[in-house]
Amino acid sequence: MAGTITDRRRRPAVAVVAVATVTVAFLALPLIGLFTKVSWSTLGTDLTSPVALDALRLSLVCSLWATGLSVVLGLPLAWVLARVTFPGRSLVRALAILPMVLPPVVGGVALLLAFGRDGILGTPLFDWFGVQLTFSTAGAVMAETFVAMPFLVITVEAALRSMDGRYEEAAANLGAGRWTTFRRVTLPMISSSLIAGAALTWARALGEFGATITFAGDIQGRTQTLPLAVYLALQGNEQVAIALSLALLAVSLVVLVALRGRWLGALSP
Amino acid sequence: MSLEADVEVTLDPFTERLDLRVDDGEVVAVLGPNGSGKSTLLRALAGLQPLSGGRIVLDGETLDDPSARILVPPERRSCGMVFQDYLLFPHLSAVANIAFGLRCRGRSKAEANRLAIEWMGRIGLAERATSKPAQLSGGQAQHVALARALATEPRLLLLDEPMAALDVTARGPVRHRLRHHLETFGGSCVMVTHDPLDAAALADRLIILEGGGVAQRGTLAEVTARPQTAYVAELVGLNLIDGEAHGTDLVVAPGFALETASPASGARLAVIAPRDVALYLDRPDGSPRNAWPTRVAEVHLMGDRVRVLLDDPVRVAAEITARSLAELRLTDGSPVWASVKATQIDSYPLTQP
Amino acid sequence: MNSHHCASRAPRPLIPGRSPTGRVVLGSVLVTVALLAVACGSSSSSASSTTSTAVPSLTGSITVSAASSLTGAFGQLGTLFHARHPSTTVSFNFASSGDLASQITAGAPADVFASASPTDMATVVKAGDVTGTPVVFARNSLEIVVKPGNPLGIHSLADLTKAPVVSLCVTTAPCGATAEAALHRAHVTLPASQVTLGQNVDVTFAAVTTGDAEAGIVYVTNAKTIGTQGVGIPIPASQNVTTSYPIAVIKTTRDAALARAWVAYVLGTTGQRVLRQASFLPAH
Predict the structure, then answer these.
(1) CATH number of C58-139+244-277
(2) With contacts defined as CB-CB under 8 Å, which chain C residues touch A130?
(3) Best of A57, A109, A121, A135 to disrupt the C interface by mutation (most C CBs within 10 Å)?
(4) Where is the domain boundary, B178, B204, B230?
(5) What is the mean pLDDT of residues B82-102?
(6) CB atoms A135 and C212 under 8 Å
(7) Domain-by-domain residue ranges, chain C?
(8) What CATH number matches the domain at C140-242, 1.10.1790.10, 3.50.80.10, 3.40.190.10, 3.50.50.60?
(9) Per-residue pLDDT tens over the stretch C88-127
(10) How far is the C-alpha of C53 from the C-alpha of C114, rounded, in Å?
(11) Which regions of chain C does DSSP assign to beta strands (E)?
């Protein structure tokens, strides 16, 4: 019957829903395109070719290392930024976030200038220790860590700030030293933010292209991660490129779904 | 064995300086208005706020002495603290909260757990052992926080506004249980509160803190009988008047003196109970030696009693019945005569706290 | 084939964005050039050079998709062409020929395609995207480049195995395909773990000059520009591989006349001179 309201809850505005639908289509279409263009019959062989396996393995190894490094290096920095007042703190925070706004290739060039054989740190590293970071898996890990770590620092810093610091005082009062307090009180209380931050970091590291190819080069089995392999395959082997893209997409989707509502909670201050 | 503290803390722009001594088994309540430095005192005793000067010695061990460069960090002090909002670790169960301190101080996980469960029984919450703090009521959380602080058998117990987080109806029974635990506690206890009922029920002695210094100290009876500051007087619901005594006259304002019961001289204080202040529309006849014209500043209804604030020449609160208020037809600004019997004004000297 | 293009337009007084003084100066220069051009005479696309008084004026804009190795030479030619025909705009899209062929067959707008290999041109021809027949306008061969001073002592393709990392193009780019062929001719195999791949010859070259790759295989035309950033090691003819550069007009061109004019310019005296200066080999 026209005019009666059977559902008494307030309905969202039609215009808003319409725009939102268009947005969803905009985001979904490229992904749907991937699904429709994939060659399902050859998917198995495409993903098990040496190039693909190397790329998959490298991506997994490098991104996990990069995430681990981001946590180990980023956690102390986040703690200092959240808990310690010192002159120049906003500058340090800006520096920690900088790789996030820097174009990745620029990041790669910057890494080259610092850690390349002719770089500031790279020269003594090579001359005294024979260590070369460019064109190495370690270099790929470095590039990924550089661009992904800001995600972890930002998330954890926000969590530490919003956490009541008096819990740490209560722990001290009960006899916990600094490390015990951190381990048994602070960390558990920021754990969900830490996990979300680590997941974001990992996803970013997995998808990194510009910095990796500039700093670590494109060497199959050593630095040719999934994104680089896709780029390579696009020319002449589109089928494999699509298969690899699908693999990347699948992994990202799994992570996102697993985290569900944690994103917004973790990212808001 | 006892706590001897000579506390001086400078937190810009405020400096707090006071001293206190608490013997084993004693409970000292620290009262004062907001901002008087009560929390700072507790934090200094706990080690969360270093002293700027002075010394803290607990059972012979120096905990904080800036001049001797001694500062024992909070985790190494034998001090248990119950925070104003308890600060129970939200990710740990009640039992785990209590066991936390025990484990930090070296007990094995199993033993800490066992002792913690015993404590849960002692506070009557054995069945809530595995509950998380969010699932506990205010009173239950307070007990767990107390158990957590007592479990490590500290020599100094600090309570920060123990009843503040509870609603008024819950306070009675909780206060009762707290009193029971304090009686069995062997160490020194310092309790910060703004509620004189807490002091009355739980404390042996009081210290009144105002503006970063001690305004008055003594037992509850001593303090309420002879309040030294307006804050204390208000705390116990009395009018405080200060003036210069010349014999039985107490000059409280230029050209205005009250006659008191006994002669004295010098600076004196006097308390007048509000119910001892009588109000008249005209100058009263009869025996009251003190009668003066004044004006009504405010009227507060409190059930079937009324508190009438008078000013000019001296601020005094009178307590009359609602019926009297109606009969006298008093409102803000009404002129009225107030009178107090001289025998009801007993002056006493100011004393150093 | 030799064609003479001296045509130019009379200058318009309104030149956007220039100061009045500038306009006067440019105007006088162009008038002088125009008069000289008219004096030189003009001809159509046929082989004879005759003087003619009718000079068709060239306008319009085109995009030339060209192999990366042509960046320097075509850039120079573009400037010279614009000086000759100021009302034209020639923009360039430099990338590996393989990428360009994919783009064009996928419908990317281009007016002229200059490829570094006949194979990529054939792809585009087969897709029916070319007007007329492609013409080879230059050839190129390969050269090894190493770090300044040649610290690893690389003097041949076989020596490349000494380098921890060698920079090569991807095989879908002509420089990569030819490098692979050259290595094959020299019976040299480089394991994948020793090779870093560049999407086009510029990237491959940069990996050695500014990056940390100790050696790479690029074109002779790249090696010529190395300066102090490295050393070029020639490859003997028995092992070297030459690649031909065909050029053609794309069917979907927006401006056929200008596109043909550009192709003729490249094939003409000026074009060939610039290409020779850049160390490209002649078409035959």
Answers:
(1) 3.40.190.10
(2) none
(3) A135
(4) B230
(5) 94
(6) yes
(7) 1-57, 58-139+244-277, 140-242
(8) 3.40.190.10
(9) 999 999 999 999 999 999 889 999 999 999 999 999 999 9
(10) 32
(11) 60-67, 88-95, 112-114, 130-146, 166-169, 195-198, 215-219, 231-234, 242-250
pLDDT of residue C233: 95
Q: What is the CATH number of the domain that holds B310?
A: 2.40.50.100
CATH 2.60.40.1220 is the classification of domain A43-267 = no
DSSP conformational letter for B338: E
Mean of pLDDT over chain C: 84
CA distance B72 to C280: 81
In a domain, B43, yes or no: yes
Chain A nearest C-alpha distance from C195 (Å): 6
C164 with A116: Cβ contact below 8 A: no
A75, A94, A114, A186, B16 from A163: Cα distances, Å: 15, 22, 37, 8, 29
One domain, residues B195 and B63: yes
Beta bridge partners of C88: C60
Q: Which among A35-39, A173-177, B266-270 has the top mean pLDDT? A: A173-177
Q: Which residues of A touch C192 (CB under 8 A)?
A: 219-221
Range of the domain at B34: 2-88+136-230
Reply yes or no on whether the pLDDT at B118 is more than 90: yes
Is C164 within 8 Å of A220 when comparing Cβ atoms?
no
- What are A's interface residues with C at a Cβ cutoff of 8 A? 112, 116-118, 132, 134-135, 217-224, 231-232, 235-236
Banded model confidence at residue A268, pLDDT cuts 50, 70, 90: very low
